[in-house]
Amino acid sequence: MHAITIPEAGGPEALVWAEVPDPVPAEGEVLVDVVASAVNRADLLQRQGFYNPPPGSSPYPGLECAGRVTDIGPGVSGWKIGDEVCALLAGGGYAEQVVVPAGQLLPVPDGVDLVTAAALPEVTSTVWSNVFMISHLRPGETFLVHGGSSGIGTMAIQLAKAVGAKVAVTAGTKEKLDFCRELGADILINYREQDFVEEIKSATDGAGADVILDNMGAKYLDRNVQSLATNGRLAIIGMQGGVKGELNIATLLGKRAAVTATSLRGRPAEEKASIVAAVREHVWPLITTGHVRPIVDQTVPMSDAAAAHRVLEESSHIGKVLLVR
Q: What residues form DSSP beta bridges with 144?
């Protein structure tokens, strides 16, 4: 088969479409013929040499895909050859084929085409696990998501609104904020022109946000804690703004607040399977009814993955960028 390889770390040009050995499903795994994958920030870090795949997983980038089951390993039940699926991966989505632990497979939701389904596994799993399973966002609470126009952000807005939360977003342009409003965002903050701490306090009569989903890390750590309400929860899922920040413990104690940090890629398969099962139970019905939808900015040929990486680096997109075969 062919896959996007990374012979040497570097810029987008480091991505090389090359012939590689065919994967073979082991115990508990299925083989998927990939129709589409999606580009995530983690893929850019892997390309740069900063985020290696977990031991034993595919060396190729790609944390999600959609396609058709073409082979089934021993010990797998509930799936058959020909099933149209999407999948959460530890790697390997930028390829013609990939093996997937059966617990990380999802059926393509009714009303979603197979290519678009590739936009779903990573964002739904990330948002549901962090915002709901860990941070326990509840109806009536205020939720702030940074990067509201990103793949994660567009999904977070919709899921938070679906449970009855008040949603605040940050984004860097009027176009992106307008799109967030269309998805249901209530509080729109242009981080280039406004201080999100002041804006959140003003919009909540000084109370702050009950849950914050943050992709920036160190750069926003102190300001996020300032923005939290009493008993607030800050969920950190990225480090685009650095890895080391100063945390004011006194402020955190005074608010009886919590800070968590998670990633999906390195979790044990059983934990991923638990998250995927929760997504199938809680999120898939919302997609099927049209209350929540995947947001796709554009599709790019998989062999030209470098072009898709450049789009993410420019941050001009809204929603997901997909790679198609």
A: 168, 212
